[in-house]
Amino acid sequence: MKKVVLLCGSPRPSGNTYQVLEECAGVIEDQGLDVEIIPLVGKKIESCIACGRCGDLGECGLKDDLNQMITKIKDSEGFIVGSPVYFGTARGDVMSALQRIGMVSRTNGNFLSWKVGGPIAVARRGGQTATLQEMLMFFFINDMIVPGSTYWNMVFGWAPGEAKDDEEGMETIRRFGYNVATLIKKIND
Ligand SMILES: Cc1cc2nc3c(=O)[nH]c(=O)nc-3n(C[C@H](O)[C@H](O)[C@H](O)COP(=O)(O)O)c2cc1C
Predict the structure, then answer these.
(1) Does residue 6 contact residue 25 with C-beta atoms inside 8 Å?
(2) Rg (Cα) of the chain, in Å, rounded?
(3) Whose CA is nearest to atom 14 of ligand 1?
(4) Long-range Cβ contact pairs of 87-90 (< 8 A, separation 24 or more)
(5) Rounded distance from Cα 84 to ligand 1 centre (Å)
(6) pLDDT digits (tens, 9 = 90+) for 133-153
(7) Angle at Cα 185 formed by Cα 143 and Cα 121, nearest 5°?
(8) 27-50: pLDDT as tens digits
(9) Which domains can be identified in the chain, with CATH numbers?
(10) In 10 A of CB 11, how many CB atoms?
(11) What is d(CA 138, CA 125) in angstroms, rounded to the nearest whole number?
């Protein structure tokens, strides 16, 4: 079955980002695809140290929790990344993960090519567009396919659960999930 991996960049287990990704995953599942949400909660993710070993090893040379995630992403057709906005940008661990995932792909046959997905940003009040732009750089340099939605993929919320009150944001995410699933099915027909 075709699969979409959704990386949740929040350190809060049932925070807004997780709840938004659950909604997105539900729509993708309804379209007949398999989904897996991978939370970064409790995971150790170091920053790329430019050791250049990924090409030889076939995985990242740093021994933390990332390689297990990379295997799952490799075996999927879709990849969605949700991050809370921290001081106007994506959470540090999210960008550390994306930079390493991208480097492992680029040194190992560009396995991210033609995977469908994109970023989602969640914040109390501001910084979502800069955060989306920051994360989009990963998708576009790695030959991935990013569909749009009816608005940018941003949701407002502060305390866990508030994001679900942002009906326009949630509808944008549901539509994005539908578009990701539909594209995956068309591409892999
Ligand atoms: C260190 C830190 C920085 C934050 N910076 C911003 C910010 O720049 N803009 C904003 O609107 N919210 C900011 N927030 C609030 C979070 O984005 C917001 O609470 C979001 O819902 C958290 O997502 P989560 O529940 O998935 O963890 C910040 C929170 C923290 C902990």
Answers:
(1) yes
(2) 15
(3) 86
(4) 87/127, 88/126, 88/127, 88/130, 88/131, 89/127, 89/130, 89/131, 89/134, 90/9, 90/119, 90/121, 90/131, 90/134, 90/135
(5) 6
(6) 999 999 999 999 999 999 999
(7) 55
(8) 999 999 999 999 999 999 999 999
(9) 3-187 (3.40.50.360)
(10) 15
(11) 24
Which own/partner pairs from 58-66 qualify as long-range (CB within 8 Å, at least 24 positions apart)? 58/108, 59/104, 60/100, 60/103, 60/104, 62/100, 66/97, 66/100, 66/101
pTM score above 0.85? yes
Rounded CA-CA distance 117/5 in Å is: 9
Side chain identity, residue 22: E
Query: In a mutational test of the pocket of ligand 1, which residue from 6, 8, 12, 86 has the highest number of ligand atoms less than 8 Å from its CB?
Result: 86
